[in-house]
Amino acid sequence: MRTPAFWLTGLIGLAALLALPWLVSSEYYINIASQIVIAAILALSLNLLIGFGGMISLGHAAYLGVSAYLVIYLTAHAGFGHLAGALIAIGATTGLAMLFGYLALRASGLGFLMITLALGQILWGVAYRWASLTGGDNGLGGMKRPHPFGLDLMHPTIFYYFVLVFLGLALWCIARFIQSALGQSLQGTRDQPRRMRALGYNVWLIQWMSFVFAGFWGAVAGLLYAYYHQFVSPQALHLTTSAEALLMVIAGGTGTLFGPVVGAALVVILKNVVSAYITRWLILLGVIFVAIVLFMPEGLVPGLTRWVRSLRGRSLKEKKTTVVSAITKDRVL
């Protein structure tokens, strides 16, 4: 059950996101914010598998990269319109998630992780070697951003609000999914798979449907990634991209709604802003990650929530002690 503090925090975060372009004058930082939003959608989709399904994947960048490659190829090289290209890219990538889910869910635990890693690396190898189709190491470009409803997405502020709409849809849809019977069943398969089977639930089917749903939102993130960069290279499919998404989820807090968003902000800011001032920014990222694991092993969002509650409880305890002491003193007098 969501507490009033949860909704208040969500409203404050929403207000901050909406006001960001007016608070930041530089287009550079607005573009960084757009990257954070796109990364947050990818992290939210991965969090469905890790946080709510207990399925750790190292191949989630496959959906980001495939969707980006498809929409750029279809719209810039095959003559498709933006709407048709986007729908085909998302549909085909979701179909790929169906296939990958069928293959990966033949195993669990470490076996599942290794299969997702292998599938992701196969796609990376194809993108790297099939130069006639993907451009190889040079990547695939030539795409122009669409103009939905007459909006010029080349303007950083307009594009930021455009991707922010998709983040809002992702948060709403994922929240509804988590609260649904399927989402509750997924969490049951994470905690007690044997008991769920004994109760008659099809654990494999629940996990597969959730895997496909996560792949769909990974495809949406890939579509927005392509719109932002107007270019895609094999790096989008590489293991490092999947590892970054995994780091976002763990740092922000697995099994939470807003944790992946906070984790995405942390990683993207360190990668794009701090790296301009610190050459060894990866060392700083490692130090921060170790600190999170040591002091907030549940992640930033749950950890900060725990700290706030403990401080509030301590404050109430001190007030109660003060009141009791005052009453005792009055009685003595």
- Proportion of residues in helical segments: over 70%
| Mean pLDDT reading | 89
Compute the number of helices: 14
CATH domain topology: ABC transporter involved in vitamin B12 uptake, BtuC
Number of strands: 0
Described by strand count, sense and barrel closure, the largest sheet is: none
- In sequence order, what are the helices and strands, one letter per element? HHHHHHHHHHHHHH
Percent in strands:
under 5%
Report the end-to-end length measured between terminal Cα atoms: 47 Å
Please identify the structural class as seen in this structure: mainly alpha
Low-confidence stretches: none
Into how many domains do the coordinates divide? 1
CATH class identity = Mainly Alpha
Radius of gyration: 22 Å
Q: Name the shape in a single word.
A: globular
What would your notes on this structure say?
The longest helix has 33 residues, at 300-332. This protein has one domain (9-295): ABC transporter involved in vitamin B12 uptake, BtuC, CATH 1.10.3470. The protein has helices at 4-23, 27-50, 61-76, 82-104, 110-129, 131-134, 156-179, 181-191, 193-198, 203-229, 239-252, 259-272, 281-295, 300-332. The chain contains 14 helices and no strands. It is mainly α and 333 residues long. The radius of gyration is 22 Å and the shape is globular. Helix 4 runs antiparallel to helix 10 (203-229).
